[in-house]
Specification:
alpha+beta, UDP-n-acetylglucosamine1-carboxyvinyl-transferase, Chain, 433 residues, binds ligand EPZ, 23 strands
């Protein structure tokens, strides 16, 4: 097939066509956090009363989670950014494979189903392009709480033995600070009999958001956001009204990088600065001035210089901003080294950036990026949610037109991204293919 034919095929796929090189100006609004909203929705399984969430982003993943919960008998009413969930009576404890497989966060419902019903059968979430993503820590935690857990034929079956149907408190030490495992164990432990502790817990803001919601529902959790979380089991949880999902720190970081890569002064709001401290420091280190107030951040990029980074669990540099930050480093002065330590295969955006003229050498999961003056537009594909975002950022700064395919990934995690970018002057068009 000729290059032209291949490129024309690329252009036939659903894609964003971005004419790069224009400075941006104005305010980028940040939606509610995808990775918080999804797990907060599964917490509704823990009570028969209504749980109302606000500031929920409008994403395909949220629709997917709504379908999964509905398949269990949860009533889900969505209007704009408000979602009302009620698990008055559950009709099943086994979410369907085809839905779970595409939405990893739905696996975490095994904790809330076990806590509420004393049994659950949840399909193993597949690995994905960025790594194997095992759930060993989730299973170890549930076993420590007294559940009998079997994994066969791709299904994780968990049940509380005997007629008691109630888990018992336990001390759990995680091998790695897994976000999902911490959230799964939290939701299982809140209704257990006795006190549980989770050591080496994930400290991400989304874990804190879940603990805050559970406490509003009557749980007794302390220490969330730190390395040791204590949960005093209670007999039941009640509902919650108008619980606001925290702003999406990864979307906020992506938008701050959009300003930096196009050398534009932009306002990004709302942002909780403490959710992004290491990212904000990296942006300062590479040449951006930040004006931070309690509503948001105004970023003023100067000359962008190369800085090194290594992804780490929170509060370290988040793996979900590794690809977007690499797009920025592709046009920085000097050579930067970016190491991905969380996932074993999260460098697939390197090849696509190279197609746009980036000069990057890859050594396993370490990329050495030699900044170039300008990237050039080309047809590219995002291989996962954050790689797709990185390609959009690169396209905003590149000379000429870029077609970014892989929109099914992008639409999972960025609520109305092209409308937001057009709102600050970007030249973006969506083609449905
Ligand atoms: C959450 O995934 C996020 N997803 C991910 O965001 C994010 O990248 C990740 O946390 C890390 O911050 C949601 O919250 C829905 P982990 P999760 O368990 O919970 C290893 C995005 O783009 N691990 O903290 O699945 C695992 O292999 C997505 O929004 C074990 O070894 O992440 C990985 O290397 C991508 N054993 C590392 O820990 C386990 O039992 C982090 O995984 C569990 C995890």
């Amino acid at each position: 097939m000729t290059l032209a034919a291949a490129q024309s095929q690329e252009i036939l796929k659903p894609h964003l066509s971005i004419d790069g090189g224009h400075p941006l100006n104005g305010v980028l609004k940040v939606s509610g956090a995808k990775n918080s909203a999804l797990v907060l929705m599964t917490a509704s399984l823990l009570t028969d009363e209504p749980v109302e969430l606000t500031n929920v982003p409008e994403l395909t993943d949220i629709s997917g989670m709504s379908d999964i919960l509905s398949s269990l008998g949860v009533s889900v009413e969505r209007s704009g950014k408000r979602v009302r969930l009620q698990a008055a009576k559950l009709s099943s404890a086994e979410p369907p494979y085809e839905l779970v497989n595409s939405l990893r966060a739905s696996f975490f419902s095994i904790g809330s189903l076990l806590g509420r019903l004393g049994h659950a059968r949840v399909p193993l979430p597949g690995g994905c392009r960025i790594g194997a993503r095992p759930v060993v820590e989730h299973i170890r935690g549930l076993k420590a709480l007294g559940a009998v857990v079997n994994v066969e034929h791709g299904i994780v079956s968990a049940a509380v033995p005997g007629h008691v149907k109630r888990l018992r408190g336990a001390s759990i030490v995680l091998d790695c600070p897994s976000v999902g495992a911490t959230e799964t164990i939290l939701m299982a432990a809140v209704l257990a009999d006795g006190i549980s502790t989770i050591e080496n817990a994930a400290q991400e803001p989304e874990v804190q958001d879940l603990a805050n919601l559970l406490n509003q529902m009557g749980a007794r959790i302390s220490g969330a956001g730190g390395p040791v979380i204590t949960i005093e089991g209670v007999k039941r949880l009640h509902g919650c009204r108008n619980y606001p999902v925290i702003p999406d720190r990864i979307e906020a970081g992506t938008f701050l990088i959009a300003a930096a890569i196009t050398r534009s002064t932009l306002r990004v709001e709302p942002v909780i600065p403490d959710h992004l401290n290491v990212v904000l420091q990296k942006l300062r280190d590479c040449g951006c001035k930040l004006e931070i107030d309690d509503q948001g951040i105004t970023i003023k990029p100067g000359t962008i210089s190369a800085v090194d980074l290594t992804t780490q669990p929170f509060p370290g540099f988040p793996t979900d901003l590794q690809a977007p930050f690499m797009a920025l480093m592709a046009t920085a002065y000097g050579t930067s080294v970016i190491s991905e330590k969380i996932y074993e295969n999260r460098m697939q955006h390197v090849g696509e950036l190279q197609r746009m003229g980036a000069s990057i050498r890859l050594d396993g999961s370490t990329a050495i990026i030699e900044g170039v003056p300008r990237l050039s537009g080309a047809p590219v594909t995002g291989s996962d949610l954050r790689a797709s975002a990185a390609m959009v950022l690169a396209a905003l700064a590149a000379d000429g037109k870029t077609q970014v395919s892989g929109l099914k990934h992008l639409d999972r995690g960025y609520d109305g991204i092209e409308a937001k970018l057009i709102g600050v002057g970007a030249n973006v068009q969506r083609f449905k293919g």
